[in-house]
Amino acid sequence: MRVLVVEDERVLADAIATGLRREALAVDVAYDGAGALERTGVNEYDVVVLDRDLPKVHGDDVCRRLVADRYPARILMLTAAGELDQRVEGLSIGADDYLPKPFAFTELVARVRALGRRASAPLPPVLERSGITLDPSRREVTRDGRPIELTRKEFAVLEVLMGAEGAVVSSEQLLEKAWDEHIDPFTNVVRVTMMTLRKKLGDPPVIETVPGVGYRL
Description:
Blueprint: E1 2-6, H1 10-22, E2 26-30, H2 33-42, E3 47-50, H3 59-68, E4 74-79, H4 84-92, E5 97-100, H5 105-117, E6 127-129, E7 132-135, E8 140-143, E9 146-148, H6 152-163, H7 171-178, H8 189-201, E10 208-210, E11 214-216
Parallel strand pairs: 1-2, 1-3, 3-4, 4-5
Antiparallel strand pairs: 6-7, 7-8, 8-9, 10-11
Helix pairs in contact: 2-3, 6-8
Domain OmpR/PhoB-type: 124-217
Keywords: DNA-binding, Phosphoprotein
Pfam family, one: Trans_reg_C
């Protein structure tokens, strides 16, 4: 899952991004509304965590623009403006959820994951396929009941493959969903991660390489 955090308080923005990355999410950060619109113009996100009181372009206007453009991401407004009428206003302009500051980080993660499941075709909270069970909220993976320890990127790649429900996923799509904008698109990181992931999942192999196209689980 790929997330954009839009927050002008840099310390808070970076702390949120670091925490979400530890949850095996790919995260980009924008520190103002103009930066948010620039990033959503070139990247496809599953969830946008959006502060309302932003410089350059107000968060409400960012939300309105994304909704008007039918941008596919779900929008979680994260702001100190937490009164009932303010929450209603935020939802009325197109936000999908609203979390006032201060907040518990565990709740933020849960809300982001819930919105991410709704960003495209609805997915169950726990993914199961080919004897593999992946629980994003607990960051746990098992195969035929056997626990499997994965790195954050291996977990993220497996989550994308399982979420595709048998469809082929290209290397470009994996880079888009499991890494952030700082990754070199010409790197072999997808191939290397896939090799280690296959090894950890064990035999018989469940990840198929479709030559010239991508990967399928």
